[in-house]
Amino acid sequence: MVDPFHKAIRRNPDTQWITKPVHKHRELRGLTSAGKKSRGLGKGWRYSATRGVREFHRMLRFVRAMCSTAGEGPVALTIRKKLEQCFAPSHLEIVCESYMHNVPKGSEKHFRVQIVSEKFEGCPVIQFHFILHYIEMLSRLALRPSLLISPSVRHFSKSVLKTARMGRTGTTGIHRFGEQAGIGVRTGKTLKERLLGPTTGAPYVYGTYALAGASVFGVGALMYYGLVSKESSILQQSALWPAYVRERLASTYSYLAGGLAVTAASGVAASRNPAIMRLTQAGGVMGLFATMAVIIGTGMLCRSIDYDSTVAKHLAWLLHCGAMGAVLAPLVYMGGPVLMRAAWYTAGIVGGLSATAITAPSEKFLMMSGPLAMGLGVVFVANIGSFFFHPGTALGAGLMSVVMYGGLILFSAFLLYDTQRVVKHAQIYPRREDKMYGMPLDIPSYDPINAQLSIYMDVLNIFIRMAMIMGMSGNRRK
Prior knowledge:
- It is found in: Membrane.
- Its main location: membrane.
- It holds the Pfam family BolA.
- InterPro entries: Bax_inhibitor_1-related, BolA, BolA-like_sf, GHITM, Rbsml_eL15_core_dom_sf, Ribosomal_eL15, Ribosomal_uL23/eL15/eS24_sf.
- The chain is mainly alpha-helical.
- It folds into 2 domains: 4-188, GMP Synthetase, Chain A, domain 3, CATH 3.30.300; 193-477, no CATH class.
- Helices cover 58% and strands 7% of the residues.
- The protein has 16 helices and 10 strands.
- The protein has helices at 4-11, 52-59, 73-87, 125-141, 156-166, 191-196, 202-228, 234-237, 243-271, 274-280, 284-304, 310-327, 336-359, 369-385, 394-428, 448-477, and strands at residues 16-18, 28-32, 45-46, 67-68, 91-96, 110-116, 168-169, 174-175, 435-436, 439-440.
- The strands form 4 sheets. It has a 3-stranded mixed beta sheet with strand order 1-2-3, with helices on one face. It has a 3-stranded antiparallel beta sheet with strand order 4-6-5.
- The chain is elongated.
């Protein structure tokens, strides 16, 4: 089947054609069927009579514009309308070539423009540049406004003339546009490039905003429940507690303070042992799962032993606290001042949240178990994802922001929940001397060690995230 270019040549054998090939010498060749040099071609043009029409067929049959655009339908219509208006072509074909770039259906972006027009016959070199710039401008006008090189479509011809007039280089009048094969326009970054590209720091900024909002909410809740609310709070009910409830809560928070002290001491001791530091610094997903196995295993061991087995229970508790200290030992690389500030901030956060929990209605935060479980899943997945994506990338920074700021907000909410849960458990757990139907109850004693473990983990998670935030803020100051 003969294409329109062959038909046009056969109908007009003496027609003079000027086209612009691209090859390593960057030469412009003008061909005529009479075998004479084209008039008005200027310096740098030459003719090869031996190649004839075959050379013309092989290299110079059509003008191709590969343009990255926003869509197939509207862009193809825009290109067709403007080319028909400017060149009155005898043949105009616009073919989508997005399939060569693995673009999914419905998101086509690449087109090939093939055009035959009598206005291309015998064009002097400057007019040929006008033609190329017309097609270049068409490809750019189809893009979003931020990438336009002309003010508007109404000033299209003026901008083309200005570009053609001002864009020439050297004495030959050849524009650098002719050095490239086709017309390429850069589009915006893909989703993959945005996620894996360098971060702008926005995730950390949004994290600080979320943390500030949570802090304002906490202060507002404390003021509301302490000054305005008329519902009965834990603080008001404490005046009616029996003595055994007070003893249970006192022993619970005594074990909490002792566990934190043991953890700090074991962390300092582990930081001075190179063998333990090598084990705790093992990175990657395997190191994460090994750390989780140690924490969960020692915690389950401690919970499984009855409080009446005094020695075994306390040894398991000390083992769990010591393992947590060894896991946190690499934090010493942040420096003593950073860790001390993080510890003081943690103490302030824990004190404020505890005050909020005891001034709120007695079961206000006990209804948050479902949302807290979902939030814990999000933070856990983000923590695993942070091992695969560098925090310098946009995606890695987002995951790290969720781990730090989202985790801080999450475990602060967990502290509110666990505080009220511990108080409620101390109130309703039966005593051994209580009787049911005249028979003594055969139940284990109240276990203050198990009761404080959830608050203990909340405090440590808050401290870890405060240390990370303090360390990052210190690095930015440097």
